[in-house]
Amino acid sequence: MSEHLDTWTAADLLSYEKYIESTTGLERLSRVATADEEWVVSDWDGERYTIRFDKNFSKKHLATFSKDRERTETEAYFEWLNSGKTRDAGENWQRAEHKFMNEKMKTTADNRNVANACTCGHLFNKHPGGGACNQVGCVCAKFTTAFAASRIAAGKPTEDPLAGMKTPKTTFIVLNWVPKADFESVVVQSIQAHEKPSGWKRGDPLAKAVNDEAVLKWDFGTARLGAVVQAQAGTDPASWIRKQGCYIKAKKIATDWGRQTWQVFHMESSPPHAAF
Question: Is the pTM of this model over 0.85?
Fold first, then answer.
């Protein structure tokens, strides 16, 4: 059974599952696999939209603050000490949250930059279908990244949520920086722009059919500048570009009376659909 956080932000949309951490024996939470992530939002006309994800999109591009409140509390205490005991509790907590979030995004960006390298030292194209390495003399039986190996050792349920083509740049949406209701409104409006474009009136057929694709504009507004982060692997988070919105590529995969299902599968990052 999946669980959700309680932050009053868009981070509450994500689903988590329990697992036992191998190194400590403690029960922890990990995000469900991208294929199991599902959101349901509704528009002004009562139309329901089910949002699903493909190609590891959820774990690659949706960032949150740390789930570990004890760890955040400890770091906030050190922030207070480092300030000479002058900063207030709210600022210390915020600094701790941002530190751990940036570390997590950096880990993701760095691991995506080597996503096609196996622990045996050979690239994915030497592992047909992800199986045994065909490099002469190599006895590796399965393609496994260093990131995947660390997750397997920890007992996490999803072996490698960053699997795929390597890339030096990753664009993140920081869910904790957008209130849940505002985020849902942005998602709904981005789909409505294609399903119910200007001139559409109640009773008209929707403009998109199953298998149609669309580029969705997710604009969180100038007040949410920083909700979208463009990270470069191997660089300091202080140098990353902070934006207010981005474009998402999605496909309509099912339709029913009063309910449409869309699958998000790609973060657009190049002109004319670069983050803004």
Answer: yes
